[in-house]
Hints:
This protein has helices at 15-20, 36-40, 51-59, 63-67, 71-74, 80-84, 91-104, 113-128, 133-141, 146-151, 153-161, 175-191. The chain is an all-alpha fold. Residues 31-37, 51-52, 55, 85-87, 89, 91 line the site of one iron/sulfur cluster.
Amino acid sequence: MKKKTLLESEQHRNFLEEIAALPEGERVLSCLQCGTCSGTCPVAPLMDYAPRQIFAMIRAGMKKEVLTSVTPWMCSSCYECTVKCPAQIKITEIMYALKRESIKQGLVSPGTDVYRFYQHFTDIVSKHGRMNEMLLMMKYMALRHPVAMMSRVPVGLRMMMTGVMQVQPHRVKNAESFQKIVEKATALEARQ
Length: 192
Ligand code: SF4
Ligand code: SF4
């Protein structure tokens, strides 16, 4: 996990207020820094900052570091931290809010692989109305992780032979109507 000290002049003093204004963000102010969230989080070792550190950084005004962190993107939404937080902070929801904020402010770190995965996932579902694992693997892995992709070919073949993975993308009956719903939802989200 990274360690960094910010000069006072580098801090965004209103960042805590900005986060507190987000959905479910207000309770961030009640964080006790007990570390229960970091201790129970199953994916904390994969994060650049553990959840407790993220809350400390929000309070310290470390806006850029928080919004470029991979931590919210690694969150698997297991809700373990939310259930155990003694301050009843809805940590999982705040992780979602931080992801939305990173996208909105154009601060998603270019190396954030999970974001790319989400983008490909939503592109495919928006276009076809259904997920297609073959297409997802091609888009997500072919360019960036070609060696890893080759090592998974035998598994992919077995999945195709047993019908678990479809080669041709399946589309919902009226994909155009579905796309209109997605466009409407995207426009509504952009207005928030
Ligand atoms: S468990 Fe809750 S109170 Fe404790 S550090 Fe995490 S967010 Fe803060
Ligand atoms: S909800 Fe996210 S942050 Fe909380 S314990 Fe699960 S993976 Fe970790």
